[in-house]
Each structure stands twice: as structure tokens, then as C-alpha cells.
Amino acid sequence: MAKVNVYVDGFNLYYGATRNTPYRWLDLNKLCSNMLPNDSVGGIKYFTARVNARPNDLQKPVRQQMYLRALRTLPNVSIYYGHFLTHSVSMMLTGVNPVQRVWVDKTEEKGSDVNLASHLLMDGFQSKYEVAVLITNDSDLSEPVRMVKNELKLGWALESSIRISNTASSSNG
Question: Cα–Cα distance between 141 and 4 in angstroms, integer?
């Protein structure tokens, strides 16, 4: 039985696995128990950024805060925050002739990946896990994973294809 820490890229998990399903209230403990039935999960670290209301979805931050409050009730889940930056950029409008440029607001999540990588490495240096499981599709994390594997000689697993069923979720919300 390996001592495991799980590192969750919250937005990657949401957009990759739960967004277009009725299962938005993902129980991370249950997910990890189902994924790792023969291991001891010591901690689950969830990395995200607080969303802002959008003109087409004013309730977006309310829904996120409800989910984050629910996550905080789980004893082995910790939440770490990055932030969003929004700036206007000029982009080409597709499907029109002649070519036209328009200004759009581009919003990018910042800091969550760095936070995840930092915790992954620090926890490894402090021997807080024997195996790290990353739930992400983000290739930016390949170098910290390489360091865990080659420099720290610790195990790791990357889960990027989570499919949600009703065993790890509730369809409320």
C-alpha cells in the first residue's frame, strides 16, 4: 500500500470531465478511493482560481463558491488559489471576407499550475508521499513530474482521462 498525495488541476478537471455532465458535485475523496483502491491517500490538493460573473452567467461565482465550501468539509482536501487576468487583445474574426480584426477580452488563469508544481515538489522533498497522482491534462507540468521521477526517485501517475459516473458525484447543482 503506497502513501499517495493527489494534486488536482481544478479547471482542467471541470472542463475535461464534469462541465457538460449532470455530475458537477464531484466528491474528490470518493473519486480518489475509486481510482486508488489499494493505496493510502494522505492528502488531496485542489488548485483553482476564483471565477468572476460573466454577462451570460452571473451565477458562475456563486456555484463555484458552493462547491469550494463543500470541498472544505472534506478533512483531507486543501484548496489553493491562483487568479485570473483579463486583458483586451486584437484577434482576427473567422469566417468573414474580407478579414476583420476585433477586440476581445481574453481571460487567463494564472498561478494555479505554478502552485501545483510547487506543492508537488515541496511535498516530495519533505517525503509526504511515495506516489504523486496528478489529475490534469496540462503539459506545462512535465518538468516538475520529471524532477519527481528522476531527481527525487518517487513514483507518480498522471490521470488525464477521467470519466465521471454517478459513483463519485451527485447531480445536485
Answer: 18
